[in-house]
Amino acid sequence: MALLITSECINCDMCLPECPNTAIFEGKKVYEIDANRCTECVGFYPEPTCIAVCPINCIIADPNHVEDQAELLEKFKRLNIVSGRF
Questions:
Q1: For residue 66, which of 1, 16, 22, 82 is within the disulfide window of CB 3.0 to 4.6 Å?
Q2: Pair 38, 79: CB distance under 8 Å
Q3: Which residues form the 4Fe-4S ferredoxin-type domain (predicted)?
């Protein structure tokens, strides 16, 4: 499933450069994650890097965008391999 940044975000900028799919962006109040671009780092890293660097643990699984590992891998391929990034 895609990830979600909660309203507890303090806009510390730690997650933004960590996202290999550029799924994280500045929202009106807190950073947000584009569910269409989030692969939970599948295809890049064993674990989501944004979660690893978040100092307040405000990044959670998005219950509105449930995807299994195979779906996340397909999204990774669509975003990166097809676009010529790899």
A1: 1
A2: no
A3: 1-29, 31-64
End-to-end CA distance of the chain: 23
> Can you tell me the distance from the alpha carbon of 58 to that of 56, in angstroms, rounded to the nearest whole number?
6
Which domains are seen in the chain, by residue range? 3-81 (3.30.70.20)
CB 6 within 8 A of CB 71: no
pLDDT for res 42: 96
Distant-in-sequence contacts of 32-36, Cβ < 8 A, 24+ apart:
32/5, 33/2, 33/3, 33/4, 33/5, 33/59, 33/62, 35/2, 35/62, 35/64, 35/65
- Weakest-pLDDT range from 10-19, 22-31, 41-50, 77-86: 77-86
